Each structure stands twice: as C-alpha cells, then as structure tokens.
Amino acid sequence: MNDMLVLSIETSCDETSIAVVKNGRDILSNKILSQINIHNEFGGVVPEIASRKHLEAINIVLYEALKEANVELNDIDLIASTYGPGLVGALLVGLQYAKGLSYALNKDFIGVNHIEGHISSCYLEHKDLEPPFMSLVISGGHTILLNVNDYGIYDKIAETRDDAIGEVFDKVARKLGLSYPGGPNIERFAKFGDEDAIKFPKSRFEDDTLDFSYSGIKSSVLNYINHCNLKDVELNKEDICASFQKTSVDMLIENVEKAFKRYGGKKLCIVGGVSSNNYLRNRFLSYFKDIEIYYPSKELCTDNGAMIASAAYYSFLKNGKSDYTLNVSSSVKF
Fold this sequence. Notes:
By secondary structure, this protein is of the alpha/beta class.
C-alpha cells in the first residue's frame, strides 16, 4: 500500500490545530495555536470568542502546518476534521473548512470523533502499540474507560455519570483563585501540600458498576472552602490541592483495577488533557506493576490535530470516507 498523508483539523474547543501525519503514525507537522491566555481572564472558555479566534487563525495554522511538513496541499490524500463532541461553533469552523478543502482539492474527506482522536494519540507516541488494550480517557469534558478491541472497535466499560475529572479540577482551582486551566495549577500547589491533611469522600454507587462520579468530591471541596471562609479560617491551598488531587486519582485507580479484574488484559493507555498530570502518571505506574502503561507526550495529551489524523487514517481504512452531509454534534456519544 502506498503512503497516505492525512491533513487534519481540530477546533473542538480553544485550540486551533492542524497536522500532517503519514500512515497514522508519523507526525510530519502538528501546529497548535492555543487561546488559553485569551480565556484565562474569564476563568474558562467562552464559546463565542473561541469560534471567532478559530476563524482568525485557521488559515495561518494551515500554512504553518504545510510548511513544517514540507508538503503542498495537492500532496495530501485525505482531509480530516473533528465533528464532535465539543463546542458547536468551534467545531463548525474546522468541519466546514475541511469540507471546503476536500471539495476544492477533490480529496476524500472524513469526520473524526474527538474521543477516538484522544485514544489514537498513543499510536503516535508508541509506534509498536497495537490493539487490544484498555484506554482511560480523562479530560475537561470526558472520563471514559473502554476496551479497544481493534482499530475503530470499542466496548465502553464505564463513564462519568456527572462531572468529568478535568472539569472538577478547573472548578476547584477557580474557587481557590487559581488561574485557568486549573489542572496544572492544582498539581503545582499540591507538590507543597500534605495529601493526607483533608479526607475528602469518594463517590460510590450501590449498583454493580464501574462508572465514575466527580460531583460529590467537587461539592465536598467547595463546601470545605466555603466553611473555612465563613469561619474566617485561613485556607491552606497546598493541602487542599494535594488532598483533592490524591482522592481524585484514587477513584480512577480503584475503578481501573476493578476493570482489569473483570475484563483481563495487560495494557492500559491513559489519554486526554488530565493524563499530562505527573502525579497521576507516577501513581498509576507505581500501582499497576503487572500492567504496561502508555501515555502520549504532553503535547499530544491536549487537543491536537495529529491525534485526529491518526484516528482518521484507521477509520478511513476500515469504513471509507464521510459524506459531506456530516454535521457537528456537541454531545455525540461514543
């Protein structure tokens, strides 16, 4: 089979990213223009601003991606874009741009599920990794555990029933007066705190499920902060961050351990923005001695075009191209 060059576009939230990837594994370019500094003053992503900034940036990012990859548009074999889940306005910018390129260049077009993109990020980092394996997707919008049986074939084991873990990190950070995004700042403060100082409760379900719940610990931390403020007790932000972080990771580890006991397997890929947390990485590596644990590089943990290109490549080989009638979805299921 001849080499396939995929040009992919990712605009599901606040990163404008375009990548060129060969055969689903080799990154020729992966340009990312982040809007973090813009949204920081609002304490989170403002959808209307995100969409407008994608429109302003996308031509520039495309030019930089092609330049770094040292290819022309006519060299591209497949045009890909995220179609969901994500912010509708932001997704529309990337999807419509990809369709336009596909039509103008007479190249095949394919839409990619954002979650499948995160799962595929490990293929870029670990060239010998092949299914089957278990994957934990943890980000600002998702907490999902699934079995990857083959390329594009998944069995969902568990998901959050309420808040995603990354969303809770952001909300706790905002309550503590830490800047957006919250995850890196929680981790930074936690390094200087006592993770056993405060006992925050873990959410548990009575039914036989491996699903996650982070609304309970979120409420417990916010209530603790409110109680301290009402009593005029000085907050120890370091201890709060360390105790919250430990309990949040404990909940992940416990459910993943149960999943391996129930389903078997020897490989775990942890992906998504929260997987860049060094504390989390070290806890998993030290706890699961008999499991091979894979992470993407930190650049590939956050939203990026390269992961979308990898997913697009394997999806195209299995299912072929998408129709131009494909539309965006803010909450497409996986």
